[in-house]
Amino acid sequence: MRAVSEVGNPTILATFTVIAAILPMAFVRGLMGPYMRPIPVGASLAMILSLFVAFIITPWASVKLLKHTEAHENGNSENLQQSKLDRLYVWLTGHLLSKKKAAFGFTALVVALFIGATSLFATKIVKVKMLPFDNKSEFQVILDYPVTTPLLQANKWSRELAEEILKHEEVRKVQIFGGEAAPFSFSGMVKHAFLRNSEYMSDLHIVLADKSERKKSGHDIINELRPLLISFSKAKGALSKVLEIPPGPPVMATMVAEIYGKDVETRRKAGEVIHSLFQHEDSVVDLDYSWRESRPRIIIPYDFAKAGTYGTKAVQSWQLGELIFNESKVATIDDLTTPEEVGVILSLDQQTRSGPRPFSGQTFPTFEAGVVNAENVLDAPKMMKTENLYRKNLRPVEYVMSELAGKEEAPVYGMLKLGPKIPYPTQTAEVPWDNHQTTLKWDGEWFITYEVFRDLGAAFLAVMILIYILVVGWFRSFLVPFVIMAPIPISLIGIIPGHLLTGAYFTATSMIGFIAGAGIIVRNSIILVDFIEHQIKNGHALKDAVISAGVLRFRPMLLTAAAVVVGSSVMLFDPIFQGLAVSLIFGEIAATFLSRFAVPLGYYWLIGNARYAELTKPVMENDNWGGVPNEP
Asked: Residue 348 gets which letter from DSSP?
């Protein structure tokens, strides 16, 4: 009962600080919102349930199951023998509390470690990315040959490339899809891979060895094959892209430049400038643009004036053209040697269909003359280009799309390199309202990254405010929350180098781990500060209370950190949640050990004397609201 009474109130407060830390993540908007929402909702409910377990199940189980000694019965926990580490802590903390220079030196050390850790972002030793690459055993290579390439030639060239790819030791199979789309993933659906049905288009579906049979990741193997794809594309005049199956956001491309302007010519002129800048950047691969020429079409116009004279209908020319240029399945044959039925197709011979006069000898029925030659109501064929026009949010737009390869594969680094070279105004978030000025807007994975980190940053600010309000409400001090929340930035001393040690990107899930870890870290600080004040109320001197709190409360803090480390370790090898695990593990380790000194030092030197005087002053009659004592 005494133990529950001692830690009960700070446990309630600590539980709600953890909930306050993670719950704002439920309000992240955009594409990642639905994926993040279950984490804070489920964890908040679990924390509330754990509070009931702590007050009901744990005390009951302690009485029933734990062995009780006389020392425990009498509550003489202070008389327990201290370990060598505890004695070292007492000596070191006493030294820091006795000399301001030593305390200042420790503070300077922590600040230097913090600056050193955060500088890993600025020096790009630890890189930022929305989500890391996955280690999949399959990917696609998309090939767009010159638009006049016939299907047979495209298939021949694709087979040559497939045979070269198969020479790689980790490649097991290559399947060629000529003139039709390969099976597409969710990412392929967003990239419109299902529309690839032209004769000059080929898709190669490549299967690698199983993960257990190779040491290299799928992404590393793709980077090894890129020189082969680039040289092949240059030799054939083709455009090649690699379509991975990433765990990241489904976007049209990693780095997308949207160009807005007053007319098509202005947009495409600006697009050529942007395309040239992209082309001269070494890290840019799979470069593409939206105004790329499509296959030209032969248009045979219908002469409505002549048709009116002869009495023919426009729909008749369309129906006749459908019969001439398409195939009609008239029957099917079952063949046991193939998995699909064999169709019996009726069509004109290819020479007639591809000739200069495909409608020669064909007739239309008429109202006036019975029948008339089709060529009498059709004008001469003419070649016309096909253009695709794009709009976004009702605004005409052109796209320059690319992927990134090499050491810096996150879009933010490509933007930092190309941004200063772009001669047009740039925007990050919203589609420009005014189209009269040529404007570039960054999109692709960058926009999702910006949106998620923006909302997570706002959530983190809300976390800090909520935790501050909760701590102020309990301790009735505006300064105590700053001491309690000090270890939050200290956790970055472990989080950022932790990403370096594990070779991981700092991702959106890393940010989630930082925010969630903040709640756990504050929980430990609350319990530590509350016990300091508990010791002061029981008659201990300020310095003794601070030191004894660090000794006696370190074991539960260490067990909490150990539980976080063990629980998070199962996520270390998951490509999406690796960042979450690294942030929780290394953040907890750094904060647990450094906050054991930082919190006592902050409490002692910043607010100790004032809090000691406040906590030890005599209880005054009718002083519940802070009034003056009644006169005798």
From this structure: -
CATH architecture type of domain 298-384: 2-Layer Sandwich (3.30)
Give the span between the Cα atoms of 278 and 403, in whole angstroms.
10
pLDDT, one tens digit per residue, over 358-381 is 888 888 888 776 888 888 889 888
Q: Residue 545: which pLDDT band, with cuts at 50, 70 and 90?
A: confident
pLDDT at 73 over 60: no
Would the pLDDT of 470 be above 60? yes
Do 586 and 495 form a contact (C-beta atoms < 8 A)? Answer: yes
Backbone angles phi, psi at 203, to 5 degrees: -120, 130
The SS3 of residue 76 is coil
Given a contact cutoff of 8 angstroms between Cβ atoms, the answer to whether 511 and 505 are in contact is no
SS3 for 3-56, per residue?
HHHHHHHHHHHHHHHHHHHHHHHHHCCCCCHHHHCHHHHHHHHHHHHHHHHHHH
What are 600-619's pLDDT values in tens digits? 888 888 887 888 788 777 64
For the chain, first and last CA: distance in Å?
39
DSSP, res 253:
-
Structure tokens at 23: 């719950």
**299 token code pair:** 């248009």
pLDDT confidence bin for 496, thresholds 50/70/90: very high
Q: How confident is the model at residue 238 (pLDDT cuts 50, 70, 90)?
A: very high
pLDDT > 70 in the chain, percent: 94
Backbone torsions φ then ψ of 332, nearest 5 degrees: -130, 150
Reading the block at residue 41, the tokens are 């909702």
pLDDT band at 201; cut points 50, 70, 90 = very high
Q: Which residue has the tokens 């956790």?
A: 491
CATH, domain range 138-294+389-448:
3.30.70.1430
| CATH 3.30.2090.10-classified regions of the chain | 298-384
For the stretch 133-148, pLDDT in tens is 778 888 899 999 999 8
Q: Which of 364, 358, 392, 394 is nearest to 376 (CA)?
A: 364
CA distance 397 to 257: 10
> In angstroms, rounded to a whole number, what is the distance separating the alpha carbons of residues 183 and 311?
48
- Give the torsion sign (CA, 388, 389, 392, 394): negative
Reference 575, options 183, 212, 122, 218; nearest CA is 218
Nearest in space to 386 (alpha carbons), one of 296, 300, 267, 298: 296
The CATH number of 2-64+84-130+460-615 is 1.20.1640.10
Report the SS3 class of residue 231.
helix
Q: For residues 619 and 623, what is the distance between their CA atoms, to the nearest angstrom?
A: 7
Cα–Cα dist 4/58, whole Å:
10
Q: Is the dihedral of CA 373, 377, 383, 386 positive or negative?
A: negative
The model's pLDDT over 548-587, given as tens digits with 9 standing for 90+, comes to: 888 887 888 888 888 889 999 888 888 788 888 999 999 9
2-22 vs 508-537: helix axis angle to the nearest 10? 150
pTM value is 0.76
